[in-house]
């Protein structure tokens, strides 16, 4: 089961360093609920029912060429004016 990514953005550092095909591949994994290199507890939190949660999904992917890349989807319930937003970033961009 996939989840909606909503509007997708990337930090300037990601846009400058990571090829679009790599970003799209990571977004596809995130949307397909493949949380990457998270521990079991964090994966379980992502897999839980988010109707009463903070409305955030977090993935972390280790890449050979670019290091660790995070993908975060906020506002899963779409309560904001723009609905969900997914950000692709390096941990140091957080």
Written description of the protein model:
This protein is of the alpha+beta class and 94 residues long. The chain has one domain (7-93). 28% of the residues lie in helices and 27% in strands. The protein has three helices and four strands, in the order βαααβββ. The protein has a four-stranded mixed sheet with strand order 1-4-3-2. Strand 2 and strand 3 form a beta hairpin. It is globular.
How do the helices and strands line up, and which of them pair or pack?
Elements: E1 7-10, H1 12-17, H2 20-31, H3 40-47, E2 56-63, E3 67-74, E4 85-89
Labels describing this entry:
single chain, 94 residues, alpha+beta, four-stranded mixed β-sheet, 3 helices, 27% strand
In short:
The chain has 94 residues and is α+β, with helices and mostly antiparallel strands. Helix content is 28%, strand content 27%.
Unreliable stretches covering 5 or more consecutive residues: none
Q: What would the principal axes of the Cα set say about the shape?
A: globular
Distance between the first and last residues' Cα: 28 Å
Fraction in beta strands: 25-35%
Helix content: 25-40%
The largest β sheet comes out as: 4 strands, mixed
DSSP summary: helix tally: 3
The structural domain count equals 1
Q: Pairing-aware structural class of the strands and helices?
A: alpha+beta
Please tally the β strands and state the result: 4
Q: Spatial order of the strands in the main sheet?
A: 1-4-3-2
Determine Rg (CA atoms, Å): 13 Å
Mean pLDDT: 88
Taken in chain order, the helices and strands follow as EHHHEEE
